[in-house]
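Each lists chain and fold; for instance:
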Amino acid sequence: MSDLLDLHPAPADMHRLVVEGLSRTPKQLPAWFLYDAEGSRLFDRICEQPEYSLTVTETALLEQQAEAIAAALGRGTLVEFGAGSARKVSPLLAALDRAALKPAYVALDISAEHLQQACERLQQHHPTVPILGICCDYSELEALPEHPLLNGTAHLGFFPGSSLGNFTPVAAQRLLTQFRRLLGPGGKLLIGIDQPKPVQRLEAAYNDAAGFSAAFARNLLTRLNRDLSGSFQPERFRYEARWIAEARHIEMALVSSAAQTVTVAGRDWAFAGGERLITETSAKYAPAEFLALAAGAGWQGAARWSDPAQDLSLHLLVQADSEH
């Protein structure tokens, strides 16, 4: 049976973040707000859509290169940031186990219910691997909590899904610096990075024909209504995903269909017709660009694996001031 520690941000913290986000121009909320239980379920459906190839590509790459990656990672506790359904880690755990490296696994995610289900499912597939779930906002975590699985062992970070793209370059570099601190001296980081593609293909990936991307975004408003006494009418916002060339990222937003005033977090907020509430961004990095970003956070590339089409890279990073 896997353990679960609940360090989810308090409602007061969510209240503060909503006030800060809606006071910005343009309005934008932290991407983790999208991932309540229903949002996590909808994101899993997005990952199954034919337009969204990232998950299939990365999963296949992990399966194909599991032995080589396990050998490069070595012995330690695998710490996954933003684990979601925790489906991608399974081939790594199996390869580490086959190599007699005695892996343990710690999953960090914002949705406690989704995390518990993911850890229980993973435990069934890997009954001998110790597993711990930590419900938290990993981007704000000051330190990994005290726990036997995190004591006296090397920490091997795992950050798949190109989730780093959800952060601005400045925030992404800050997050990579934080990962260094959380993983500790000698810690390594295996990270998935989505690479640039034609604009039409990128926009289609975040605006699937089945409508799960739109439902995922609108669920944010439902969550705000439920958790922070909001008065959003989701049908009065349309979903839009578009490539922003100057920022080099996809921007996902809910666009107000008309001038309206919404109450949430104890305040009234005016939306003009056509005004955008940014729900998420997704930056794309070529390998050299990413390694330059990582270098600014004290990491250096030790290995890289990619699919034949060069759509996505798995980078193994080591700390620049450590021996490897």
